[in-house]
Each structure stands twice: as structure tokens, then as C-alpha cells.
Amino acid sequence: MENNNNRQFHFAFEPINYILMGAGLVLLALGYILLSGGGSDDPNVFNPEMFNTQRLYTAPILIILGFVVEIVAIMYRKKK
């Protein structure tokens, strides 16, 4: 009987891919945190904070960047 103890385990991604995935997750989390809030405790009172720059522009841009970084992290390969 032959023993195959010399098998090598290969990860699907390189360390740079995992670093990029982490950066993408941080961008996504930050975008969703900035997007939250702005509501009112009383439904009969209008709160204009719902329509500030943070929620209309900054948060969606961070979320889109996070998804783009995640796609790049999955697709990225070092040149050989």
C-alpha cells in the first residue's frame, strides 16, 4: 500500500486577495454605518437630516466602492 502523505494543500486565493477582501468589507461596513440613522422618533415630525450629504452621496459611494473592491479581490491574480 502506498501512502499519499505528501499532498500539498493550496488555497484558492493568495494573501493579497484576502487583504483586498478585508478592505472591501471595511468599506461596505463603513458605508452602511454612514447610511443608517436620520429617522425621527415621532412619525408626524419631519427630520431633514434624512437628506444630508452623508446619506445621499458619501455612503452610497463607499458601498459601491466596497463591492468593486470585493470583485477585484476575487478576480485578482499575480502575473507569473
What does this structure look like?
The structure is a single chain. The relative contact order is 0.22. The protein is an all-alpha fold. The model has no long low-confidence stretch (mean pLDDT 88). Helix 1 runs antiparallel to helix 2 (53-75). Helices cover 55% and strands 0% of the residues. It starts with 14 loop residues before the first helix and ends in a 5-residue tail after the last helix. The protein has helices spanning 15-35, 53-75.
As a whole number of angstroms, the C-alpha radius of gyration is 21 Å
Share of residues in strands: under 5%
Distance between the termini: 38 Å
Q: Overall pLDDT, averaged?
A: 88
Structural class: mainly alpha
The total of helices stands at: 2
Main beta-sheet annotation: none
SSE pattern, N- to C-terminal: HH
Helix content: 55-70%
Shape: elongated
**How many β strands by DSSP?**
0
Which consecutive residue ranges, at least 5 long each, have pLDDT under 50? none
Question: What is the topological layout?
Answer:
Elements: H1 15-35, H2 53-75
Helix pairs in contact: 1-2
Spell out the key features of this protein.
single chain; 80 residues; 2 helices; 55% helix
Task: Summarize this structure briefly.
The protein has 80 residues and is an all-alpha fold.
